[in-house]
Amino acid sequence: MLQLTKGSLRKMLDGENVADPILQILQMKNIQNNMDGLTRYKVTLFDGEIQHTFGILATQKNTLVETNELKIGSVIKLEEYASNVLSKDPPKVVIILLNFEIIGDMDPKVTTSSSEAQKPNIQNENIEPKSVEKPNQPQSKSFYSNNDTQASKVVSKLNNTTNNASASQPGMFNNFKIFGISSLNPYQNKWSIKARVTNKSDIRTYNNAKGPGKLFSVEFIDQTGEIRATGFNETVDRYYDMLQVDNVYYISRAQLKTANKQYSKLDNDYEMTFSNDTLIEPCHEAEADELPRMNINLVPLSEIANKQANDFVDVIGVVKTSNDVTTIVTKATNKELKKREISLVDNSNFAISCTLWGKQAEDFDGSENPVVLIKGAKVGDYNGKNLSVSSTAVLQINPDITEAHTLRGWFDQGGASDVTELSNVQGGAGSQTSGSIQTAWKALDTLRDDRLGTSDKGDYLMTKATLLFAKKDNALYMACPGDNCNKKVIDQNDGTYRCEKCAKNYPNFNWRMILNVNIADYADSNWATCFQETAEHILGVKADELGELKSSNNPNYDDIFANSVFKEYNFKLRAKMETYNDERRVKVSVISIEDIDYVASSKRLLQNIRAYVKNNP
Questions:
Q1: What are the tens digits of pLDDT across the range 215-250?
Q2: What CA–CA distances, in Å, run from 332 to 12, 178, 206, 377?
Q3: Are residues 245 and 182 in the same domain?
Q4: Beta-carbon contacts of residue 260 (< 8 Å; ≥ 6 apart)
Q5: How far is CA 515 from the centre of its chain?
Q6: Would you say the pTM of this structure is higher than 0.70?
Q7: Could you tell me the CATH number of the domain that includes residue 322?
Q8: Which residues of 453-486 are buried (b: 16+ CB within 10 A; e: fewer)?
Q9: Rounded CA separation 597/357 (Å)
């Protein structure tokens, strides 16, 4: 028969730390939490002498009950738990079963050989301990008995605090036991942690129904895991300057709640909120150096093509290029925001565009090709894979780690001279970079074979092709001269031109181009539409000049179209489904056009050849 650890429950309720007690589950009931909608299980524990009717199963263990692995009669070895006092009078103590091993089963009746261990009805139907006694049955001796002096001992020990939190015993802070981050949950109220700061955001402001406010977030790590914490208003003033990245602190009395995964990228179901009761003190012990400094899972740039949009990744790379800071106006808030585009390369021979925002963008210096470590970069797939570094991500310049030194040597020896720009998931061995967009090189037959353009966002590709024909009919139209309009105007035959969109008559108009061209490469040919800038590049003339030639019936008008054909360009194309006259069809547009750099083109072909040889030995 399995041996229960007699006397262990008294010690646990008395605030003592009991190592791996063996207990039995006598009763079990599910309870619904109206705050978060989660189901939790309340259990009655028995140690062979006394029983405790107020045990709570940690939610991560719910599956054991649902699969019937944990049931009434199960015997467990309790490896990790928390004892929390809910009230002093009457004394109510909850034992949270955080981690345990199921070692067997026993009939609950076998354990009731003495009057102390009579099996009672379940108490605490609504997590409210009450004395329940069956008639004609000896009363069970429990922790909540009026004759049991353990209650006063528990309350006095677990609630005895001092004004000086630093005076706590070893393994304690603020007279609360120090737990590992991974074991924290919202149902503990007597806990502390010792953790290192790995990241701290800037102070941000907000406005809501309660008025203006400010907040910041910080990330902690210890040997067991990571957790995100947020401070608002007064706690910003109290703790923002104190909490410094890479320093170690004691923390207690913060509120715990379910993590909002929209803002937290850490592998933790919970997060902290600092309150007025929160206590934080620096840790100057020698053991602080034993805490990890950052939990990273580096992903080579070559693997980002397989990541989904909005995934978070940890990457390290060398800054190959760094653009100037630019300012954009956000549509949601109509506020100006600073951004900087950089290009990262690594020794997987891939490169990717990365966007820095706000103060990070303004302060960043990429002039000497630094090695950059980014923890929590967000993957984007707009027109190709790219990375975005928000204020909550960790960015380190030239970190002192092995991977950084390896990359430094690789880059300094010319490793970045032959890299492949990261393309989208459907991309091939190479791609063309235009600003912050990476687009895959494809042959024109993929428009048909891969059914490009059938997605909601459209598909992009780069191709080197020859211009076969440019249609001169309807290549020009008279456009509205109003700001950002460009809609077609109607000649009123009175010297004015009517724009229906602007609802105004103008004394003049602008010439605009819509040029339909037929292009071909080694695999196929296709029609594509060029707009103002790309059309002007192909014809080698501005729209206004071409319009003057057309208006005056100058024969040079036809010559310009005839001379434009049989020239090779690099085309960036977009294929997108459109509806025209109730018919859905894929329309191909020329997004940009470039004269061919034959050196770069040859390098790309060599990369394709190497990739083919590698995949087809």
A1: 999 999 988 888 999 999 999 999 999 999 889 999
A2: 54, 43, 14, 22
A3: yes
A4: 271
A5: 43
A6: no
A7: 2.40.50.140
A8: beeeebbbbbbbbebebbebeebbbbbbbeeebb
A9: 32
